[in-house]
Structure formats: structure tokens, C-alpha cells
Prior knowledge:
The structure is a homodimer of 204-residue chains.
Chain A: H1 7-25, H2 32-39, H3 43-49, H4 53-78, H5 85-95, H6 101-119, H7 121-124, H8 132-148, H9 158-177, H10 183-197
The structure holds a DNA duplex (30 and 30 nucleotides).
Domain HTH tetR-type (chains A, B): 8-68
Pfam families (chains A, B): TetR_C_6, TetR_N
Keywords (chains A, B): DNA-binding, Repressor, Transcription, Transcription regulation
Amino acid sequence: MPKRVDHDERRAEIGRALVQVAARKGLHAVGMRDVAAEAGVSLRLVQYYFHTKENLLLHGLQQLTEGFGERVTARVRAAGENPGPRTVVEALLMTSLPTDEESRAFHLVLTSYALLAVTDEALAAQPYLQRPDAAEDAVTGLLEQAREAGLLAPDADARTEAVTLLALAAGLGTSVLTGQRTPESATAVLRHQLNRIFREPKAS
Amino acid sequence: MPKRVDHDERRAEIGRALVQVAARKGLHAVGMRDVAAEAGVSLRLVQYYFHTKENLLLHGLQQLTEGFGERVTARVRAAGENPGPRTVVEALLMTSLPTDEESRAFHLVLTSYALLAVTDEALAAQPYLQRPDAAEDAVTGLLEQAREAGLLAPDADARTEAVTLLALAAGLGTSVLTGQRTPESATAVLRHQLNRIFREPKAS
DNA sequence: GTTTTCGTGATACGACCGTACCACGTTGTT
DNA sequence: AACAACGTGGTACGGTCGTATCACGAAAAC
């Protein structure tokens, strides 16, 4: 047999190329030939590792969401050890804002997938898009945790505020993406909302 | 000459067909033949009234935004004569939530356009997508108007709250679209936020 | 009544896309 | 050494899409 290549690594490489092209030309305009050229391989190779285009798109989506999860944990970890609930929530929300070029690509393509799933049932059946409920649960849990620590505004309902924060972050994200708002302005608005929900911690 | 048809009306009809098809199959999958079939005319007709596909898409976008404006004013007018600022703001925001089938189509296609404009500069140059700033100004103005009437929470900044409300409505809208949230839940969250910003009016 | 212009239909063309097929070298296995 | 499985390249096929072309009837203009 030939070189005995690592298929998973190769697939990931091609997946990255897919995201790059999608960020540049739009997910709808991505062809297998584009992906092959971006990855520097032949069209046949893309066919070989993902038999069909649908497979390629599905794998790209999976790769994207996994990458997002890694970004969140990396950001949380960068916030220091044993971070408070607010720090974690803030890291989670800020990650979903397109600030640099890479996160822009991330968000554009991920939003394209979500929108595509509305009219494409094969995509809608994928588990990676039904997961945002998990984010809601996570934030709700963090807010309740904050409440027990006395860090939450007294009249705040955890789940309602969690939903609000996530929807707000998503809305701000797309407005940044379309150029209607600067990343700085978006983070400021998000932080303002966080300041409302979280109470100042007692000075020790 | 033949029947001397009203071109504008015909164009609007075809534009409606475009939106219908886009809502069913996704904007990316819309072909001129689909639009023609949906409108019950021949492909040649679509070509005749809109020379190119780009023209067709542009006109569809324009038609969509105009329809949205009409929806808002209709909803405001339905709220009774001489409505207060909160009523107007609430009507504006609620209109942007996909509740029935028609507004679902509205929002799906409009969001698709917005996302398309990120990677397509010909679409991005259209004025109808740069306008949401106008919505921000409008809501800001209404909030300031409310402040002067003593209807606003004292610590609220008009523009920040306007941006928050619009981004929140957009985020909630897409989550309703993707089926992660019911329309009822979304309106409840939105109203909760409005209750926070607006103060109870003095009993007369 | 002739001519010209407008609206409409049918069909064709070139390009691109996803997929399938065929061929060949390479590297393990026996 | 012989053979089989794997990875890779090149290329062709069927379909669809946007667009262009040809043709024809119907009404307004003169």
C-alpha cells in the first residue's frame, strides 16, 4: 500500500479548507473543486475522503462546532484558575462574537449552516445544531450558581436572563458580521447587560 | 402592442414568487426556473422583466424590506391612535419575530440576504441592508421620547438599550426560526426586557 | 391598412457542478 | 517474488443553471 496516510488528519485539513473557502465566497458557493484547490489536493482526493458533498458539509459543521467548544474552554482557562461564574459566562459569550478574522470566518460559516438547516432537513437532523440548548442550560446553571454565591441581582430569573444573554450575543454577532457594528461596541453592550445581571461581589 | 401589462405589478408578482420559493428551498437554491414556475409564468417572462438574476434578487430584497416596513406601520396603527412610545417600540420589535408562516418566510429570506451580503459585495452595496441603522435611530428616538415623558427607567441609556433590544429581537428571531424556541417564549423574553426598561406609567 | 413596437413562447448554448470510472504507482502481506 | 490492497491522478458523463437567440401574435401609431 502507499504512504499509509492518517485519514482523520487529512479530513481535518480538507475541512479547514472548506471553512476558508466558505468564509471567502459564502457557504452556498463552495464547490468541491474549490475545496480541493484551497487544500492543495486534487478533486479526487476530496471525493476519496468524503464520498459525497453532503458528507463534506456535515464534517465541516462538526469540525466547526468542535472548534468553537475548544475556543470557549481555552478562553475560560485563560481567565485564570477557579474563575467565578461571571467570568465563565462572559468568556462564553465573548467567544461567540466575531472579533478577529478567524472568529469572523467561524461565525459566518456557522450561521450559514444554521440558516441552511432551516430548509435542508438532512442538515437539520445533525446533532451539532440542536446543541445550543446545551449552551442555554450551561448559562442557566452558571447564573444559579452565581445566585447561591450572592452575586446575582435579586430580581433576576436565571433562565430568562440566560436566554436573553445568548440571544443578545447572537444578534450582536451577526450585526458585527454585517458591518453594522464594531466589535468594541458589541462587547460594550454585552458587558453592560452583564453588569445589570451580576451584582458587585462583596469586597473581601 | 400586446395587452399593455403593468410592469411594476408583474414584477411584484414575480418577486413574491421568489420569496415563496426561497422560503421553501432556501435562497441559495432558488433558480429562475423555480421562480417562473411558482409565479405560473414562463422562464422567458422572468428574464424579460428582470434581465439578469442579480436584478431579480435585488428587487426581491427591496420588496422584502418594503413589506417589512409596511408590516411595522400596520402593527403600530393597529395599536390604536396616538400610541405611546412603548407601544410603538413593542410593535416594531414584535414584527421582527417570526410568528406565523408569512413572517417566518419574511425573516428567513431577509436573514439569508443579510448573510449573503457579507460575501457578495454587489449585494452589500444595496442600501436596503445598510438601513438597520435607521431602526436603531428610530428606537433610540422613541426611548428618549419616553424618557421625557417620565416613562423610562432612570438609569437607562437610550442608545444602548435600543441596540440591546434590536439585537435581542434579531437573536430571538433566528432561534425561533431554527426551532430552538417557541414564538411565545421569545415574545415573553422580549417583553420582560421591555418591562425592565420602561417604567410603569403614572395612574391618571 | 400597414408598420412598428411590445409581450410572450420555445429552444439552444456554454459553463459549471457533483459524481463515477479507469489507470497506475506504492507499499504492505504471503 | 508475486500478489493484493491502498492512495492518488486524470478524465468523462449527465444534469442544471443563467443567458442568449429566434420566432410569432397582438395592439398601438401613422
